[in-house]
Amino acid sequence: MRWLTWRYTVAVSAAELIHVLQSACSGELAAGYAYRGHWKSVPPGAIREQIQKIEEEEWHHRTTVQALLARLGSGPSKPREALFWLIGKTIGLLCRVGGRFIPMYGAGRLESTNIAEYERAAALARDAGYVDMIDCLLTMAEVEWEHERFFREQVADHWMLRIFSVWPSPPLKHTIRLPYGHSRGEDLL
Ligand SMILES: [Fe+2]
Ligand SMILES: [Fe+2]
Hints:
Helix content: 55-70%
Order of helices and strands: HHHHH
CATH superfamily: Ferritin, core subunit, four-helix bundle
Radius of gyration: 18 Å
Number of strands: 0
Bound molecules: fe (ii) ion
């Protein structure tokens, strides 16, 4: 009976992991195109370069997630890919007319959910028996944490925050690895 329960948990976790990774895969597609439009709307300088770097990191995440899905015998969800392609392209275009605050604010909010998404994927990978995927997923969560911090800094003290409340702060970066017992102990800010 216990064996059957375990088998059931593993199967459900694997199915849920595929679902979360498909969501992440499409999210990275939208993020890549949105950030491409975003950095092109920012004047040349360090901030523009940082957003361009973030775009590159999102494409890298997408490639990584696609490889994980392939290992699970799955792939991206075509309807979701089409929808998020459209969302990313639309946001990318809107960034050119949205001023400075709105694109930074929207990006920060989205990045905070991306951290949780990869943390959830790591927990599911553990429960499904794919322990070798955990480090890769936590590393992506940590990169999303850095993205969130960058965009939070861009909107800090902006007068528009009197209208749009700032999104909740994610837990400290080192806590991402705490459930797995191998925190790198870095960045205790
Ligand atoms: Fe990402
Ligand atoms: Fe990101």
